[in-house]
Request: fold
Amino acid sequence: MTRGDLNLFQIGLVNFVFFATMFLMEIPTGAFADCFGRKTSYVLSCGISVIALSVYATSHNFVGFITAEALGAISATFCSGAYQAWIVSSLDHHGYDEDKSAIFARESQLTRIVGIVSGVLGAQLAAINPTYPWWLGAAGAFVTGTVALIIMREDYRKHEKPDIRLVVSEFTLKFRASVQTIRQGGPIALVMLLGIVFSLTIQAPNMQWQPHFRKNLGSDAELGYVWAAISIALILGAQLVSKLRRGPKFERYALIGIQLTIGLLLAFAGGSSPWILSLGFFLLHEIGRGLFAPLRDAFVNDSIPESERATLLSCGSLPSHFGAMIGLLISGAVALRFHVGPTWIACGLAMIVLTLIVSRIRKHN
Reply:
């Protein structure tokens, strides 16, 4: 049994487990990174990822897939806040005072370039044996963790032997400080609200693009080329970030405008025929996503205190995970009843309406 043997609702359930696990683990793992070190957290993430991908490679049933997703989610939470916090703290420690959006944009571009290669290679390997991409991914995670263990440095951090009582106390303080920062509003609150809207409405294309376009392709291996096109679209979007870094007020409206545009393009992708036109709008919406992510990351990281950076980033991710959980269930059920096209139209329109509501709420706070 493979992911391809599941229907759209079952695929949503598997990924529901992923986001539910992230929701539960995000804050504890973010605090772990702040207390025990972001390098330790990232290396641990790579180790758990090796296990998760290996479980996927050996699984042949629904329970196995769920187990792999849960492990993958734990791996992701150990990495999510820690990696960006390590980058920003290291840059600040060494006196880097230039625009960090270029760093996040370059990170996104390099990630997508690797994604192009792995996507095409993975699709070709899967045509030979469906387990080969998972084993290759596990090997890559092992190599990444080994390299990180050797080269990552935390010169900004005081290396002291952790006391469990102090760790618990520090975690409590960091969590309270993070919650207080969020309650005060500002960039992190805006991004949280936009994030929950985005994650609630974007799960349909995330989960359904493969079955939607597969029926018009000659073979499953050709999905790798579609993935490569998606990665190129994301790279192009990241390339535009520097043009929108003109101060927090402008960036606030830029983030709102980009999310509205993504919703509009998603609705067009769902309602367009022939399929190649639908694919064109889908790729345009991916350009918007590639532009949004690094701009959001720089916008937030420039506005939060260093001491609880990883914890606060993890707190800020919670609403997005919750939105994704709900979005997966709703979009999967709607797609089974009304098919993919109408589901994308509904999700795109919902993104537009909810984003406009959020922008009005933040405007009056």
Summary: The two ends are 51 Å apart (CA to CA). The first helix runs from residue 8 to 36. The chain has twelve helices and no strands. The chain has one domain: 3-364.
